[in-house]
Specification:
The protein is an alpha+beta fold. Helices cover 17% and strands 51% of the residues. It contains three helices and twelve strands, in the order ααββββββββββββα. Strands 1, 2, 3, 4, 5, 6, 7, 8, 9, 10, 11 and 12 form a twelve-stranded antiparallel beta sheet that branches. It is globular. The N and C termini lie far apart (114 Å).
Length: 199
């Protein structure tokens, strides 16, 4: 009889344990979804074409795509922006050789595909060929909708132009539409007169 009770107890335990399932909760599932990329791409290249000519090219050694947040996490980043090419008078595509307007690189970046905004970190360097300016920093944020470039108040940003002027400071802000820049914190540097003004 005791043996029968033990056998029944084992059978009841097995039936209960097989019916159990672990519930990790919705929050844990959502956290995992946000941390695990939908796609991982090596030697990533993304090119935007306008009027038959490249307008912007983004490259990375590694890209992780997160569909839920519409972001790309990039490592070993470089990018090139080309001058805008107007369509031909008859609406035909342009075959002009693309002219570089700006280019840059960073150790890593987080790019929002919806707003075309980005946070660049590491050894960040952005050069505007149009203005003859190079911006270097450990962190730069680009707001694609407002067209604002900002450096953090904790990191030093340096701007150098082709004439030799150089300014460094924290709290860097630049407005691409107005083509102006400034610093919210103390800045130091020197200004060199352009060659024509110096003569």
């Amino acid at each position: 009889m005791a043996r029968l009770h033990r056998t029944l107890a084992v059978l009841v335990f097995l039936s209960l344990s097989s019916a159990c399932s672990l519930d990790y909760g919705v929050t844990l599932g959502e956290d995992l979804d946000e941390r695990i990329p939908d796609t991982v791409i090596f030697n990533f290249v993304h090119t935007i074409v306008e009027n038959g000519s490249p307008r912007f090219r983004l490259s990375a050694e590694r890209a992780e795509s997160f569909r839920s947040t519409r972001t790309l996490k990039l490592a070993g980043v470089s990018f090139v922006e080309y001058e805008r090419v107007a369509p031909g008078s008859n609406g035909s595509r342009s075959v002009a050789v693309p002219v570089v307007a700006a280019e840059g690189r960073a150790d890593s970046a987080v790019f929002n595909t919806e707003t075309e905004s980005a946070d660049l970190t590491g050894k960040v360097s952005v050069r505007s060929a149009r203005d003859g300016l190079t911006v270097t920093s450990a962190f730069i944020s680009w707001d694609g909708e407002a067209r604002l470039l900002e450096g953090g108040s904790e990191s030093v940003t340096t701007i150098q132009d082709d004439d030799g002027s150089r300014v460094s400071g924290a709290g860097f802000k630049a407005d691409a539409a107005r083509r102006s820049f400034g610093f919210t914190e103390r800045a130091t540097g020197y200004y060199s007169l352009p060659a024509k003004e110096a003569e």
